What we know:
Elements: H1 16-33, E1 47-52, H2 58-69, E2 73-77, H3 90-98, E3 104-109, H4 114-119, E4 125-131, H5 137-151, E5 158-162, H6 169-180, E6 184-188, E7 204-206, H7 209-212, E8 218-221, H8 237-244, H9 248-251, E9 259-261, H10 274-277, H11 285-313
Parallel strand pairs: 1-2, 1-3, 3-4, 5-6, 5-8, 6-7, 8-9
Helix pairs in contact: 1-5, 1-11, 2-11, 5-6, 5-11
Amino acid sequence: xxxxHRHLLGIEQLxxxxxxTLLDLADQYxxxxxxxxxxxxxxxxxxxxxxxxEASTRTQxxxxxxxxxxxxxxxxxxxxxxxxxxxxTLIDTALTLNAMHPDLLVVRxxxxxxxxxxxxxxxxxxxxxxxxxxxxxxxxxxxALTIRRRKGRLHRLSIAICGDVAHSRVARSNIIxxxxxxxxxxxxxxPTLIPSGAADWGVEVFDDMAEGLxxxxxxxxxxxxxxxxDGAFIPSEREYFxxxxxxxxxxxxxxxxxxxxxxGPMNRGVEIDGTIADDINRSVIQEQxxxxxxxxMAAMDLLxxxxxxxxxxxGVMV
Length: 318
């Protein structure tokens, strides 16, 4: 299987064939996860440490579950209670952990580039679980798997990414991945929440939902990331929902079989109407959660294979 990387830091470094390799393996893990016995030995004997410097429910839980189902020894570090609070630097924390000989390090950090910096200081495989506004690669991969399973393909689709694009690492990773796989990507949102220069990214930009959703195959809604906003980006949540929240009237502009996505957590009545979010015929939001476990299993499996191969070349016992 074609996947050459030591770390998974972003989508930008991946070739289309590597994306397909990871998704094909994730498909196998979807089947495993639906069995009564959900266990594999792919990571048996390996140690996985999860370091989340930001709050997380779905990503942290699915990485933990993924590691345990693959047979790894999984440790979740409480970063809020770590020595970083005593003044220890991120690099010193990384060096301390590295001395414990972990095999996989899963990191979420509020600063863009922090995970990449950590990867240069440790001897294990590092997975980016979201760094600032930069990237969230496994979210884009699980979105891709969800789309491919529902639509039967992951190319030449029309996909609208709607809402707070400016603050979203999910949007950035999806724009890169969907572009690599030859899809037509649209960004839809108020000008205050669309990054300047977005039109140069090979996407179409709209500030009207009716126009932006016209005949699309996939509607991907984004969370309003108020914790990253340092000013008034929208007049009010009520006004935002009126203009940019997804409801039945706006969704009617998409294709009849268009699917609706959201990375979560959702703000119902702000980004998406609850009826649409719960529509089992259109919404794939719960499927995204399921695909998240399988994608993270696939990512750790592939990185572990490369780690073992590298250690074998160096004569290190595995």
